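note to self: dont lose this again. the chain is below, predicted strucutre after it. 477 aa total, dont forget to put it in the shared folder this time
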Amino acid sequence: MPQLSALTSSPLMIGAIVILAIIALYLTRGPAHGAIKSLTRVIHSALRLAAASLYHAEEKLAARNREVLLAAGREATEQKIEREFDRMDNSVQRDLAECPTLQRRMNEQIARIEEDHQRSTDVPPSPPGWTNAVEAVANIPSKGDPMVANILDKIHESLVEAQNKARDSYRAVSKERHENLKKMRPNWRTLQHSVDEMDKNVRSLLQRAKTIDRYIEEYEEIQKGSDRAVRNLHSSSLTNFFVSGLFCAIAIGGAFINFHLIARPMSEMVGGSNAIGAFRIADVAAMVIILVEISMGLFLMESLRFTRLFPVIGALPDKMRVRMLWSAFSLLLCLATIEAGLAFMREILMHDELATSAALRGQSGTEVFASDFLWITTVAQMGMGFILPFALTFVAIPLESFVAATRTVLGLMLQGFLKALAVVLRVLGSVFFHIGNVLVELYDLVVSPLLWLERMIKANSGSTRKGAKSAPAREVF
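---
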């Protein structure tokens, strides 16, 4: 070993080793080039094959995601159409079932009003023919005969009196008719209100029909599997994912508050020093109560058919479903009542701690403050303990949307990951392909002195052969 280190420390020996290495590299230049190119081409082909496989897998995943998305969109659209048809059916049965009867009554009242109005606008009848004769007799000159004048005056007075009675009678009848028309005015307004209400109901039905037409157009687009429908479903899924995720986060915050509201009194019930591994039994018990409340809320929403996370519950007979609904609601009510009691117990424990610490410090007045003012916090905590379980019930709705949207979003993310990985592999394959050329050039750079010497020798030998071929020609000339 000392001799070897002495040899390697000599500059001449190092130079000789380098020269021998260059000569060895020069002598193995052809096989080394082939090995380098073969290795890089194998890596290049393997990476390109892996990229092609990933592209193929990405295409299959995209087709699968498209099928799943279209199926989910088809199911959601069918539910919307079914719900709109149910609403339209209820509207028709509620609003338009009495339309024939209402129309008949309206026609009768309108005919009666028109008849009374026509009678009230009749012109006074013309006087009979005998009145003209009586008037002519009354206008005969008396020629100074008092008897004739008296008779004519009597006839004239009778005629005037008869005309006045006829006029007064007609006026009384007309007044009565106008009074009847005046009394019919509220009925007319009622008829107008009924007509407006019917028009409103019909317009509502027409609007629902337009909504159903739009849903049916969307359903037809989904059935065709058009790109427009897929884009709309992707946008809707992303929107539902973020919105439902936000509401689920809010629900998690409510559950966290609920946990801290009952964790303290649970430690007094099950023992605060006991633990299961790294978790206290009190915390585990409080978490179990909250999870049971959320489960009862899910079962309640499933029984009400607000959500469809469990198809088995939705397929139950109505009688069994109603029983399950009331059972879930009863358990949820009991758990909410228990939480209200635990919240009250928590406030009592806090008061005891405040009183104990005040007694240890020798202070006074804490009990008076607690008894006079701290009942507000007690009521607030009991109210929160009773309301939060029912509030957590509604987490089933955003949870269903989040689960449905997560499937689509994860598919899109996995599809993008496969595509990006395929691109990276293709780029690496191209890099290794060019790295082979670079390594060959670097190899030639190391043995470049010998390559230069080889080219010089070949050039000299080439010029010598040309001179030998041209010498006989000069002797001829």
